[in-house]
Amino acid sequence: MQATKAYDVGIVGLGYVGLTLATVLADAGTTVIGVEKRADVVDLTNQGIPHFSEAGLVDALTRVTSSGRLVAAQQFDENVTCDTYIITVGTPLSSEGKIRLDMIEAATHQVAENMSDGALVILRSTVKVETTRKVVAPILAATGKRFDIAMCPERTLEGRALQELRELPQIVGAEDATASSRAAAVFQQLTSTIVKVSSPEAAEIVKLVDNTFRDVQFAFANEVARLCDAFGVNAHEVISSGKLGYSRTNVALPGLVGGPCLEKDPHILLQSARTRGLNLEITSAGRLVNERQPSETVGFIADEIMRRGLSSPLRVRVLGMAFKGIPATDDLRGSMSIKVLDALKKAHPDAEFGIFDPVIAPEILANSFPDDEIFTRFGDAVSGASVVVIANNHPALGAISPRTMSEFIAPDGFLFDYWNHFSHLPTSELGDSYFAVGHTESVA
Predict the structure, then answer these.
(1) Which domains are seen in the chain, by residue range?
(2) For site-directed labelling of 345, which of 59, 146, 194, 230 has its Cα 20 to 30 A away?
(3) Helices 336-347 and 281-308, axial angle in degrees (round to 10)
(4) Quick count: other Cβ atoms within 10 Å of Cβ 181?
(5) Contact 397/421 with Cβ under 8 angstroms?
(6) Beta-carbon contacts of residue 286 (< 8 Å; ≥ 6 apart)
(7) What percentage of the chain's residues is helix, strand, coil (to nearest 5)?
(8) Whole-angstrom Cα distance, residue 183 to residue 290?
(9) Element spanning 129, H or E
(10) What is the distance of C-alpha 82 from the center of its chain?
(11) Closest C-alpha to 36, from 27, 48, 44, 47
(12) Interatomic CA distance for residues 71 and 43, integer angstroms
């Protein structure tokens, strides 16, 4: 008979949230089993190889897997027991835009089957308000086993996850003091700053409000860019000048707004509000502004192509496919760069498209974008291009000035920059072939 293997923590879901948390907990001395249905992710994890790019993760994961403090499996074995279970599975939106709960339900059933009396269950996934109480807790209760439950939302920034897990305040939401204290003790192994809120619902709302606030901020910046474009004014100049030495105004700079959180969380907040008959007008408007930006800006690009009379074959290059470049990531989830690429293809179906990303491996780009030419070097991507689109804010994409770039692109070709990499440069370095969000007047 096989001996029982006891772990301090069982984490269900080894995506970005689960694997980084599992690694940091194990690095702090906790024994962790990570359960993940994808066999390739389990195999890579047990070899100490992350399945995504994250600063410091390679060394940390190698350390905890080689020591045996972290192991991965596709399911909980009947001989495995855990004191604490943490659910970190994804909650994507359906094709109809509704939050999916099937993965949360499946993960909870796994926990319910494996847990013993007195287990602590923590929900860490981003969810619709009342999911902890009305979805997770009933599944656990149906087993007849005793358990404590808490909601402790994930709030780390991709590219700084290992650092922030040790530094950020951890939110703990539970209905009773025992569950709250037990959940706090788990995260006190990582950080001394624990913020206890009065209920799981409060904790769920904290996460949604945090990301929705950022989404609305960025939407206002994009509104400013639209206004400045209409008046032929440089939005970067307006925003930067307005907040210089003026602490009451701190407007963000415009740009594409997406990613696995900002693309999704405002919709989850809106759906939560509607269950109580509320319509959050500012949240809705912010999402509208950010979601329509690709089609609006591609409309300008199409007009500029026509105005310049660019000849066929039209060569369009999109640089920066990950959803952001600072901190660097290889994450394509929710990337607005993809929506820009799709909009460009609809506007110019006969064009030749090529893509480049400073972080994402070429083979991953080739699998994700099989119809496009994949470039491994920035210079090769822009050489001979009719239109160069910079779609994320990775510093490498701003290393060569537009004036220098114009020497390599096609005659009368131009550059459209979603991130204003070059707006700080003098007009002599911008030339007449550089445009950006909030800066669509060319400089002669």
Answers:
(1) 5-198 (3.40.50.720), 234-436 (3.40.50.720)
(2) 230
(3) 40
(4) 16
(5) yes
(6) 212, 215, 216, 218, 219, 220, 266
(7) 45, 15, 40
(8) 36
(9) none
(10) 30
(11) 44
(12) 10
Distance CA 342, CA 183 (A): 44
Q: How far apart are CA 84 and CA 185, in angstroms?
A: 11
Residue 158, classified by CB atoms within 10 Å of its CB into exposed (0-12), middle (13-18) or buried (19+), is buried
Whether the Cβ atoms of residue 195 and residue 168 lie closer than 8 Å to each other: no
278: how many CB neighbours lie within 10 A of its CB? 10
**What averages of pLDDT result for each successive group of 10 residues across the chain (444 residues)?**
85 98 98 98 98 97 98 96 97 92 97 97 98 98 98 96 97 97 98 96 98 98 96 93 93 94 96 97 98 94 95 95 96 96 96 97 97 96 97 95 92 95 84 90 56
Amino acid at position 313, single letter? P
- φ, ψ of residue 37 to 5 degrees: the values are -75, -20
Would you list the DSSP string of 270-292? HHHHHTTT---HHHHHHHHHHHH
Token code pair at residue 378: 């920035």
- Chain CA centroid to CA 40, Å: 22
Q: In whole angstroms, how large is the CA radius of gyration of the chain?
A: 24
Residue 112's pLDDT is what? 98
Residues β-bridged to residue 354: 317, 373
Q: What are phi and psi of 3, to 5 degrees?
A: -70, 150
- Give the model's pLDDT for residue 442: 60
Q: Which of 151, 70, 73, 146 is nearest to 112 (CA)?
A: 146
Which pLDDT does position 4 carry in this prediction? 82
Overall pTM > 0.90: yes
Instruction: Note whether 84 and 11 are within 8 A (CB).
Output: no
Largest CA distance in the chain: 81
pLDDT in the model for residue 444:
44
**Sign of the Cα pseudo-torsion (96, 173, 22, 141, in order):** negative
Pair 101, 91: CB distance under 8 Å: yes
What's the confidence (pLDDT) of residue 424?
82
pLDDT score of 281: 98
Residue entry with tokens 């606030």? 213
Instruction: Compute the distance between CA of residue 277 and CA of residue 273 in angstroms, rounded to an integer.
Output: 7
Instruction: Judge whether 430 and 422 are in contact, CB under 8 Å.
Output: yes
